[in-house]
Every structure is written in C-alpha cells, then in structure tokens.
Specification:
163 residues; alpha+beta; 34% helix
Length: 163
Amino acid sequence: MIRTATPADIPVIHALIRELAEYEKALEEARATPEQLHEALFGERPAAYAHIAVDDTTGEPVGFALWFLNFSTWRGVHGIYLEDLYVRPVARGAGHGKALLTELARICGERGYQRLEWSVLNWNRPSIDFYESLGARPQDEWTVYRLTDGALRALGDGRRPGS
C-alpha cells in the first residue's frame, strides 16, 4: 500500500500537490514545477523525501506524503517534518493516510528520530479529528510565522517591508 517515491512518480506527486492546494483553497500558491520537485527529491543533495500510497487493487497512486528532516535542539536529534499528506477523496477511509503516517513513524523509530510534526489548517476538522484519533496533539502554545515574497526580499535586503 505504501512505497518510496521514485523519479517516475514526479508527475503524480506534482498532480497530488496541486490537488491538495486546491482542497486547501490556495491553488495559486502551488508554484512548484516538476523539475523543481525532481531536484528536491532526487537531485545530488535531496532536500525532501516522499512516499506514495497506492490502491491495493489497481496499483494506482491515491496519495502521498512529502517530508524532510528537522532538528530539535531540546531533544538533540532529528525529527520528521511532514510538509504534505494528501489522499484523493475517492480513496479516503481506506487506511492510506494512516498507512503513510505509520510508515513515517516507523522511520522515526528506526532512525532514532523523536518527533513527527506537521501543520493543519484550523478549518480542516476531518483531518484534525483523524490526527487526534492517532494520538497527535495540537501545539496550541505555538503560532507559525512565515516570510515570503516581498517581505522576505525586503528583510534580506535590509529594508523594511513596503519600503
């Protein structure tokens, strides 16, 4: 049901990312190209990793998990940050999402990683309920911050945003 992604999976990973972005009402923000994904996942220095969920009957990809390593200074070891987890609506409820998370938890255990973390949109109650059913807990004391586009360029250039 779950397998490590290969370079041949780049078109389906790209399509699944776009489906996820559409589901999250942010399709215009999904700008990654297949070439960028190939370099990130299979280039000389991979920055991320991916697993594919396939339908047991047809062997067709129905979901994916894309992740990378993070590091906890408090724990002193790596962890996994799950950037994307997505299962196509037609395949939901068949265990693919749980199988993807189980594989990442297995990798954590095998490699001595002590955290598996991700973000979920506050309005995505079905996903929140699913994650909590697995024992995941929200980190309510933390707020995610992000710099992008003009604000990121301005800071990098030593300017104030909007100046």
